[in-house]
Amino acid sequence: MRPIYFFFLLCIVCACVPSNNSKIPADILFKNGIIIDGTGKEAYVGNIAIKGDSVVWMGSDLSSIIADSTIDCTDMVISPGFIDAHAHGSLKSVNQFTSFLNQGITTIALGQDGDSMNPLEW
């Protein structure tokens, strides 16, 4: 094999081998929070990294994370959004729903009392 081909083959192989020093980029790191993940497991202390609108990492060893900002969540609970299965409100007034977000509620069910907005009449 010619030396130049061997050199290119070696470069390709080295480029495909993952580095142990690679860091996971994140926008926000929530550090030392009490995590309730919604699976039914006991609450535990841990860290969560967010990039954009996605969770990119959860764990305890922070050596693999590089974050733009860090929020210390010691003695605070971190959990996914809550569901309110019996809410009252009108889709005509979006401002009514701010209080739900303030409580950590990200999903609500409307119309279960027989009064729904179907079809929508604005």
What does this structure look like?
This protein is of the alpha/beta class and 122 residues long. Helix content is 16%, strand content 35%. It is built from two helices and seven strands. Strands 1, 2, 3, 4 and 5 form a five-stranded mixed β-sheet that branches. It has a two-stranded parallel sheet with strand order 6-7. The longest helix has 14 residues, at 3-16. It starts with a helix and ends in a 14-residue tail after the last strand.
Radius of gyration over alpha carbons?
A: 24 Å
Order of helices and strands: HEEEEEEHE
Major beta sheet, specifics?
5 strands, mixed
What portion of residues is helical? Answer: 10-25%
Derived from helix and strand composition plus strand pairing, the structural class reads alpha/beta
Whole-number mean pLDDT: 80
Tell me what portion of residues adopts beta-strand conformation: 35-45%
- Tally of alpha and pi helices: 2
The rough form would be described as: elongated
Low-confidence segments, given as residue ranges, are none
Distance between the termini: 75 Å
